[in-house]
Amino acid sequence: MVATVTLEPAGRCRWDEPVRIAVRGLAPGQPVTLRASLRDDKGALFRAHAGRVRATLFLPPGPGPFPGIVDISGAGGGLLEYRASLLAGKGFAVMALAYYNYEDLPKGMETLHLEYFEEAVNYLLSHPQVKGPGVGLLGISKGGDLCLSMASFLKGITATVIINGSVANVGGALHYKGETLPPVGFNPNRVKVTRDGFADVLDVLNSPLEGPDQKSFIPMERAESAFLFLVGQDDHTCKSEFYANEASKRLQAHGKEKPQIICYPGAGHYIEPPYFPMCPASLFTLVGRPVIWGGEPRAHAMAQVDAWKQLQTFFHKHLGGEKETIPGKL
């Protein structure tokens, strides 16, 4: 008996689209191991074995306008487009926004001006392919606290998704029209070192609830946005569950709607789109050395699948739009 392997879809597909692998012609109870490998554009090799995924994909093309989203990445800087391009295939008009260490932007983030981010929001709001009256924000890590600040100070923000972000301004001072949010303080002596020699920086930042660091707490009570906090409970970089709960307390204390908080046990810091490999450790720009991000591979992978669905549902609910996929284009 000859075993056969079929792959669906047979051609190319997007990163966030599940692939169905079926093996036929095996004897009952026969042990088998499936192995897959992929070499990306930079030559890095990724391998996987076993696994089983299923999904249904709909690709009805349709005319705009579409719900608009500004997508902001973490403290690594540069312009990351993969998440924005994937969301564009889900019926959203998405702007991937760099804010430092890219072309003529500042090389560091010691000082940031919210007017720059305001310009991006206004451009999206005025674009003919973007439906109003407001837009959404999506940020991870440092991008999360930037999105929280944008929702707090800027107009036209309807829905904000924070992935493992802080409720305090992190890294550098943030200025907007005469107001300044200082960065939350930190103590490098609180860095722990793992057996593998990586830094664990979970306890480095000061609490924004005490002393002068309270001035770094983002005034989210000013926001008119709905909020969704996606939390990895094994995040070793950011006390994201604590921050999400503090955000909920502050919003409700000021008569605002309770934010939606979804916690993922075993998930680390970098909750990416589905099927992206988990990043357990890498260089962290803010501390200048490799750090651990946390996460247990299986739990983290499952969190990425669910979080991707949850943020799309949230944006569709608060921004409008059809819950179906549309081929994206630049």
UniProtKB/TrEMBL annotation:
Q: Which residues are in the Acyl-CoA thioester hydrolase/bile acid-CoA amino acid N-acetyltransferase domain?
A: 16-50
A Pfam match is: Bile_Hydr_Trans
Q: Which InterPro entries match?
A: AB_hydrolase_fold, Acyl-CoA_thioEstase_long-chain, BAAT_C, Thio_Ohase/aa_AcTrfase, Thio_Ohase/BAAT_N
Spell out the Gene3D superfamilies in the cross-references: Acyl-CoA thioester hydrolase/BAAT N-terminal domain (2.60.40.2240), alpha/beta hydrolase (3.40.50.1820)
Where do the BAAT/Acyl-CoA thioester hydrolase C-terminal domain residues begin and end? 113-320
Task: List the signal peptide residues.
Answer: none
* Name of this chain's protein: Acyl-coenzyme A thioesterase 1-like
To which species is this protein native?
Ceratotherium simum simum
Gene behind this protein: LOC106800167
